[in-house]
Amino acid sequence: MIKRINICFTSSGSTFNEASKVKDAVTAQESAIVRIEDVSTVYEGERRPAIRDVNLTIERNELVYVLGPNASGKTTLLETINGLLPAYRGRIFVFGLNVRNHGRRVRCEVGYVPQDFMVEPGEPYTAFDIVMMGRYGKIGVLQRPNEADHERAMEVMRLLEIEDLAPRPIGKLSGGQQQKVMIARALAKEPKLLLLDEPFSNLDPESREMVPRIINQLHEEKGMTTLIVTHDIHNMMKTCHRGVVFRDGRVVVDETPEKALHKLEVMR
Ligand SMILES: Nc1ncnc2c1ncn2[C@@H]1O[C@H](COP(=O)(O)OP(=O)(O)O)[C@@H](O)[C@H]1O
Ligand SMILES: [Mg+2]
After folding, report:
1. Out of 43, 150, 216, 249, which residue is the most buried by the measure of CB atoms under 10 Å away?
2. pLDDT in tens, 243-255
3. Which CATH number fits domain 3-267: 1.10.287.1080, 3.40.50.300, 2.102.10.10, 3.90.1170.40?
């Protein structure tokens, strides 16, 4: 399913103060970055939950894969975690905050790369503008980006080898280039939690090696807690801690990545 995104969304509209409150909540209590308790999510107009009775904890600094066949609930899980979809039943805590009440504050510190986004060809924002949007949650709504924000945005673009795309309108870029820009936007945010939904699906073979390597490297260096839905698991296996397999909206495996992959293959 192709999802039309509002390119401007920082998914927050949040202020610097909100970001600091999140920091306080994170440091104050538990080590779990995400705690999901008995969660079911039902889409509007549907009767059947897209995910059901999910219990899952993601500890600080973990890198976790979410695997599973099409329509098993992986995207629904990510969107429920960051509060874009309300849980019909159960509770979700991110950084110790209940997402139902603090969705905007939580999203301020979450880097999210949605699956199958679509950008209008006439979209006027440049690739650099989009990456810079990742900084807005940190900058605050009434502030302007400073030199350090510019530098951070360019640094991430250089890392992903897309600095030459900076002045180009996002709508004129290829699907793979747009996908890298969206990854750069999420990384420029320096998030406490990174949610990646099939982020390599449009990349060429060379980038499919390079981008996972960068995510691995950032995870190792900065310990960024990361949840990633991908089929390209082999490129990321090295640093991954756990593999969670979904089937028909339920978590059916939560194991080491090797075991998760094996069980997924047996299931097929
Ligand atoms: N916007 C929507 N409205 C109604 N049902 C949806 C919507 N998006 C997804 N679903 C349904 O929810 C289930 C899980 O979908 P999804 O989370 O996108 O799976 P996956 O990411 O694993 O492919 C599927 O049955 C899908 O058809
Ligand atoms: Mg999906």
Report:
1. 249
2. 999 999 999 999 9
3. 3.40.50.300
